[in-house]
Specification:
Blueprint lengths: L26 H6 L10 H6 L46 H5 L14 H4 L28 H28 L11 E4 L6 E2 L3 E9 L4 E9 L11 H4 L11 E5 L13 E4 L3 E4 H7 L1 H6 L1 H24 L2 E2 L8 E4 L11 E4 L6 E2 L8 H13 L3 H7 L12 H13 L10 H13 L3 H5 L4 H23 L5 H12 L2 H12 L8
Antiparallel strand pairs: 1-3, 2-3, 3-4, 4-6, 5-6, 7-9, 8-11, 9-10
């Protein structure tokens, strides 16, 4: 797991005043509020009134309520239940979820939505540590059945894992800086580009408004790729947001920065790159020799991020068509320390073309196979092969062993023989977090394997946070994505793709 900064937590808040109430309340005082208020009369008019008899009560029949016990009432179920913790409601909570908080007051059963008292309505994620004992029967049909309890808890674990994955993604992505507006100004932070990619130079700039500023990057396209408009830029602006796709956030007009070493308008991107994948490969040659397992695991993590971006692109019916190390950028994820797993960004959409569903070209899959060879330092050897069978990859760790099985499948001459990007993504996930080939050879079931790891991953994250304050990072988020999305069929395909016979793991 990658090193990361502590999870961002909400600041400590004072306990609400209702948490200081005693377990029991005066129901007479509370029911008095149910009576309609009397008409307002002045203080002098009431003193001068000679009629001292109380006004007649309104002719309204109040039904006797069946009150639920308060959350802090002690329940006699063989032992005393502990008082439940108060939780602050989330801004997006529904009325049902607000009522699911431990009750501080008695409420009538008629006032509670039907789903709360129904045995068929509750969803597993509503079962929490703070669920009162007397509500457990709403979630478990038979508490005496261990099988029934485990079934509900398995669903609750999966739901919790998906929530953790979603929150980690929100924290790592951070708020989008937006496209700016009137009244903004810019400041060039460096006179030299921070990164040079295949199609552009990147300069760090600060966009300043009245009370905020954002660190952005000015994307200055190279002259030989210039046209009336940089190729691929208009298409890039229409792509769906994705963590691993470079996101545009407006344009800097010409003449905004007189001291800038470029002319004309330039695009602004939200992520500030630190290097290209080509730069990263060159800078880590020594690490590849000294610690091949560490380097090759990092290769798999970068390839996994690339596959996630390409999968989304293929779902939208587009193929990138230009997967080269100099076209792939690396940036520091928001809030991550130096040296943590970088965020890979897919950019340069000049050669992006629509995919034809009836004829899967699988060009991106072919280029991904070539990229594996380059990232493992075998680009020259592959170029010397000149279209013949690709040379075998040197085996230096368990990761290169798995990549040596995957890469030749991606380099198949027939496009239909190449595995689709979605399957390649799951194959990379199984390389990183299992199951390994022994599980397949031993014929062990995949369902229990998934259940076990879905239960253990949140425990590991919690133990790390409680022990040394190390919070989840980008690698943890990628692992959560895998376990939250994986199915037995998906993992079975991945194992067959990696360790089965060639051609057995096709579409």
């Amino acid at each position: 797991m990658s090193d990361s900064d502590p999870l961002s937590t909400t600041p400590n808040q004072d306990l609400p005043s209702s948490s200081l109430h005693y377990p029991y309340s005066n129901l007479g005082e509370r029911r008095a509020h149910l009576l309609p208020s009397k008409p307002c009369r002045s203080w002098m008019s009431r003193l001068s009134s000679t009629d001292l008899s109380p006004p007649p009560l309104p002719q309204k029949t109040l039904s006797r309520t069946r009150s639920l016990p308060t959350s802090k009432t002690l329940h006699y179920s063989g032992y005393y239940s502990l008082p439940q913790r108060d939780h602050q409601p989330n801004p997006g909570q529904t009325c049902w979820e607000k009522l699911r908080r431990p009750l501080l007051e008695s409420q009538s059963l008629e006032e509670i939505p039907y789903g709360r008292v129904s045995r068929f309505g509750p969803v597993p994620h509503r079962l929490t540590f703070a669920t009162p004992d007397w509500e457990l029967g709403h979630f478990f049909q038979d508490l005496n059945s261990s099988q029934e309890v485990y079934k509900v808890l398995r669903g609750r674990q999966l739901d919790s894992l998906r929530r953790i994955e979603n929150r980690l993604g929100t924290r790592l992505t951070g708020p989008w800086p937006g496209r700016g507006g009137p009244g903004q100004s810019f400041r060039l932070l460096d006179s030299k580009p921070c990164v040079e990619s295949g199609d552009a130079w990147y300069y760090r700039v600060a966009r300043i408004t009245q009370d905020t500023w954002h660190l952005l990057a000015a994307k200055v396209h190279k002259p030989w790729s210039m046209a009336p408009e940089p190729p691929g830029l208009a298409l890039q602006a229409t792509l769906k947001p994705h963590f691993n796709v470079q996101s545009l956030c407006g344009q800097m007009p010409a003449g905004t920065l007189p001291e800038a070493p470029w002319q004309g308008p330039v695009a602004l991107v939200a992520e500030v790159p630190t290097q290209t994948v080509a730069d990263w490969i060159s800078a880590n040659k020594e690490l590849h020799w000294s610690s091949p397992g560490q380097y090759e695991r990092r290769v798999c993590l970068l390839l996994l991020q690339l596959c996630g971006a390409l999968k989304q692109l293929h779902i939208d019916g587009l193929g990138h068509g230009d997967l080269r190390p100099e076209n792939l950028l690396l940036a520091s994820p928001r809030g991550q320390p130096t040296g943590a797993l970088p965020q890979l960004l897919l950019t340069n959409f000049a050669r992006t073309r629509p995919l034809v569903p009836q004829l899967p070209a699988r060009e991106d899959e072919l280029q991904l196979g070539l990229l594996i060879y380059e990232m493992l330092g075998q680009g020259p050897a592959l170029a010397e092969a000149r279209g013949a069978s690709p040379p075998p990859l040197p085996i230096r760790s368990a990761y290169s062993l798995a990549l040596a099985h995957l890469a030749p499948r991606l380099l198949q001459a027939e496009p239909d023989s190449r595995p689709p990007m979605a399957q390649v993504r799951v194959a990379l996930q199984t390389m990183l977090w299992g199951p390994g080939p022994k599980l397949q050879t031993q014929g062990l079931p995949l369902g229990p394997w998934l259940d076990i790891h879905r239960a253990l991953l949140p425990l590991e994250l919690a133990e790390r946070l409680a022990g040394c304050g190390e919070a989840a990072g980008l690698e943890d988020w990628l692992c959560c994505q895998y376990l939250a999305e994986a199915s037995q069929q998906m993992v079975g395909w991945a194992l067959e793709l990696l360790w089965g016979e060639p051609g057995a793991a096709g579409d």
